[in-house]
């Protein structure tokens, strides 16, 4: 992987709620980048409402990177499980592990309406008993195909998105529980599948943040959909840098630097 490596996730290109109306909005983030590591949910591959626009924006992003001689490495997410170059990524000889995050929970997205209705089908998927991280992520991709909803809200307004999130009430409860437990679940997942890791980088939960217990540094890169924000991560010459993404009407830029760590 050529350095600097820029790690982004949850662009959700094509989604009606994504703040990215055009791929060129990402161009300022790509300054000095040699490898763009996209950690899942890059575009809305499974949702028929957004697939056409998502495919167009994804093609535009690929063309822009090609013009800048930037290599793209794709990791699968629960919204683009078939858009994959490799199941997961590691840096610094395995000290940094990167995966989308849907495999942290057995149901992929426990808060989704479909997960609430398809518990038996999801249980049947687990009969395969994954042992390796590759098998676990392949199972997550299979479950993602089960969770395609018949309808997806296209609202971007914050109040409408909140209303969509809290209905039905059971969905809101599951969402709160997952947000509450996501860090300890991430640490548990890392201990099982990436025991050598000192850093775990995920997306999926749309809750950007950095959590360090002295044993494992957990970074969640958030998303480009409101109400949460997004983080950028850069790996270069043994240093991991993480900062906020400032999203305006026409561009995304690297904003406040939140931390720098020497790894390895």
Structure report:
This protein is an alpha/beta fold and 264 residues long. The chain has one domain (5-105, 150-262): Metallo-dependent phosphatases (Purple Acid Phosphatase, chain A, domain 2), CATH 3.60.21. The chain is 29% helix and 22% strand. It has six helices and eleven strands. It has helices at residues 51-67, 113-117, 119-125, 133-146, 158-166, 169-193, and strands at 5-8, 35-39, 71-75, 89-91, 96-98, 199-202, 209-212, 217-220, 231-236, 239-247, 252-262. The strands form two sheets. The chain has a six-stranded mixed sheet, with helices on one face. Strands 4-5-6-8-7 form a five-stranded mixed sheet, covered by helices on one side. A hairpin with a 4-residue loop joins strand 7 (209-212) and strand 8. The longest helix has 25 residues, at 169-193. The protein starts with a strand and ends with a strand. The relative contact order is 0.18. The mean pLDDT is 92.
């Amino acid at each position: 992987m050529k350095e600097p490596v820029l790690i982004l996730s949850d662009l959700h290109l094509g989604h009606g709620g994504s703040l990215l109306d055009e791929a060129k909005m990402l161009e300022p983030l790509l300054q000095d980048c040699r490898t763009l590591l996209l950690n899942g949910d890059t575009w809305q591959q499974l949702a028929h409402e957004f697939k056409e626009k998502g495919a167009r924006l994804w093609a535009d992003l690929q063309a822009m990177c090609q013009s800048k001689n930037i290599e793209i490495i794709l990791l699968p997410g629960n919204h683009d499980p078939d858009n994959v170059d490799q199941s997961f990524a590691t840096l610094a000889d395995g000290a940094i592990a990167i995966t989308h995050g849907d495999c942290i929970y057995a149901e992929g997205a426990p808060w989704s309406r479909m997960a609430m209705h398809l518990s038996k089908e999801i249980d049947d998927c687990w009969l395969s008993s994954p042992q390796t991280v590759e098998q676990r992520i392949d199972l997550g991709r299979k479950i993602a195909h089960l969770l395609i909803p018949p309808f997806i809200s296209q609202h971007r307004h914050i109040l409408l998105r909140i209303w969509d999130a809290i209905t039905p009430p059971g969905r809101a409860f599951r969402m709160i529980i997952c947000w509450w437990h996501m860090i300890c679940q991430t640490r548990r997942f890392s201990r099982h599948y990436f025991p050598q890791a000192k850093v775990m980088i995920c997306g999926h939960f749309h809750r950007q943040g950095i959590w360090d217990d002295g044993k494992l540094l957990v970074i969640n890169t958030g998303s480009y959909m409101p109400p949460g924000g997004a983080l950028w991560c850069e790996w270069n010459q043994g240093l991991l840098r993480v900062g906020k993404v400032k999203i305006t009407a026409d561009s995304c830029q690297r904003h406040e630097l939140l931390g720098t760590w020497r790894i390895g």
